[in-house]
TrEMBL record:
Protein name: ArsA family ATPase
Species assigned in the record: Amycolatopsis minnesotensis
Origin: domain of life: Bacteria
Occurrences of domain ArsA/GET3 Anion-transporting ATPase-like (ranges): 17-289
PANTHER family cross-referenced by the UniProt entry: ANION TRANSPORTER ATPASE-RELATED, ARSENICAL PUMP-DRIVING ATPASE ARSENITE-TRANSLOCATING ATPASE
């Protein structure tokens, strides 16, 4: 393994490593990477749980489970006998938000909040909610002490940075000026909306009522009355979650495909982690296409042309040679892109993971990915 190569086995074998966060833009293979790392860690003796955000059933099927829920399930199938243990779960955003409300609000107020139509909307629709709930669930798992390694697959956000921004964004949204204006009647001791309107707020309130409806204003007002008492706990939880991500036991793995947009997003994430002093383990360059033979593209095309013009035409050999030439060109392109990333971030260890010929659908496939992650 090269000196600047990411050593995944050293990372997961280190007992000081408590949390591994796989992050990156959407569609780069974070879910499979997280599952493969968790499986490899379990087989090497760690008590491991993987938290996935991917609603597709393929990961559950790969782990031999009918489905994944909001609480960890142990992976126990024929042929899988790890030295440690492997547990898996899939984030249920709404249930996680509901559980958090119950913890902070108390039984009676919690039921008021959970039944409120405005809450039912924001618990699934506010920007950053999924990312925040992933962090909330991470905090819950860490607090139990049941596992010595937690592997997190972050949400498929448009921007990978959304995961780090989620606590402050959601907290600011719920404490924002717009919501305070919308819920003014409740904060003013139960004044009716009409009384606030008559106090110089009419154009704003009428416009908002036209857009979102008067009933939603009423629901929002009731929600903020109930939510206000637990807001301090909500923000404290967000602060603790952010601290957990900065702790020495947490390591970030940035996952990227060897494509310009994905590597650009990876660069932004690396810079952000550095700015906020968050521990970065390295970059996983996923689904690369290394060449399988020491033959240049020019030589392959030349040989194909000679065969094509010869008396004994060999169509299969010609096709293979031209396919190899295309593969060489693809590999050279990917190497240039990765070299550009490495030049910009020479301190970041990198491991390239060659693409599999087919999708992962079982433990053997995840084990294969794990081997490739370890440079085997």
């Amino acid at each position: 393994m090269a000196e600047d190569s990411l050593d995944v086995d050293a990372l997961i074998d280190d007992p000081a490593t408590k949390i591994v966060v796989c992050c990156g833009s959407g569609g780069v293979g974070k879910t499979t990477t997280a599952a493969a790392i968790a499986l490899r860690a379990a087989e090497r003796g760690r008590q491991t749980v993987v938290l996935t955000i991917d609603p597709a059933k393929r990961l559950a099927q790969a782990l031999g489970l009918r489905e994944l829920g909001n609480h960890p399930k142990q992976v126990s199938i024929d042929g899988f006998e790890p030295e440690g243990e492997l547990w898996a779960m899939m984030l249920d955003m709404r249930r996680t938000f509901d559980d958090m409300v119950r913890v902070h609000a108390g039984p009676e107020r919690a039921e008021q909040l959970l039944a409120n139509p405005f809450y039912q909307t924001i618990s699934t629709s506010f920007s950053g909610t999924q990312e925040y709930m992933a962090m909330e669930k991470l905090g819950q798992l860490a607090a139990t002490g049941d596992w010595d390694l937690i592997v997190v697959d972050t949400p498929p956000s448009r921007s990978a940075l959304d995961f780090l921004d989620a606590p402050s964004r959601l907290s600011s949204a719920l404490d924002g000026r717009m919501i305070r204006l919308l819920t003014g009647p409740a904060k003013a001791g139960g004044w009716g909306l009409r009384k606030v309107v008559s106090a110089g707020f009419s154009m704003f309130a009428k416009a908002v009522s036209t857009i979102i409806g008067g009933q939603l204003l009423t629901d929002a007002s009731a929600f903020m009355q109930a939510f206000d008492s637990m807001f301090g706990g909500f923000r404290e939880r967000a602060r603790k979650t952010a601290e957990l991500l900065r702790s020495g036991g947490t390591s970030f793995l940035v996952v990227a495909a060897p494509e310009p947009d994905a590597l650009r997003e990876a660069s932004y994430f690396v810079e952000r982690l550095s700015t906020e002093s968050m521990p970065l383990a390295g970059l996983v360059a996923n689904r690369t296409h290394p060449v399988l033979a020491d033959l240049t593209a020019t030589a392959a095309l030349s040989a194909a042309d000679k065969l094509d013009q010869g008396s004994e035409n060999a169509p299969l050999a010609i096709a293979v040679l031209r396919l190899h030439a295309d593969r060489v060109a693809l590999d050279e392109r990917e190497q240039r892109l990765l070299a550009r990333f490495t030049k910009a971030h020479p301190e970041v260890p990198v491991i390239s993971v060659p693409a599999l010929p087919s999708d992962v659908h079982d433990v053997a496939g995840l084990r294969d990915i794990g081997d490739r992650l370890a440079g085997a």
